[in-house]
# Entry
Amino acid sequence: MIKRKGSAVWSGGLKDGKGAVSTQSGVLKDTQYGFNTRFADGIGTNPEELLAAAHAGCFTMALSAQLAEAGLTATKLETNATVSLDQVDGGFAITAVHLDLTATIPGASQEAFQDAAQKAEKGCPVSKLFNTKITLDAKLQA
# Structure
């Protein structure tokens, strides 16, 4: 079993408070977040963009594995994830995640590429974590 850790510290109220998030690896260390970084355009991060980055990274690695099973190797896989946070029933919920993939894979047919992308989207551990609709646009470049 692999366990990874992240942490958060918060001081103050919701709108005037400030927080910091850190990761076990140290890549994020006391990285600021707050109301403005979540609901406006403040400097810092927020949970949704961290989830989007995690999902993009997980899916892209899962796709690499699926391609290897099909005997293919990508020159480049680029995934952008968009996490939607909406007001639902008087609170907020992540209501959707959209993955936008552009891939360069020498020798890949459209069918093999789409099959690998769909398997990766379903098999990615972060995809399994979300209890929401996940969509994928996958484009194979020549």
In short: The longest strand covers residues 91-104. The chain has a mean pLDDT of 93. Residues 47-69 form the longest helix (23 residues).
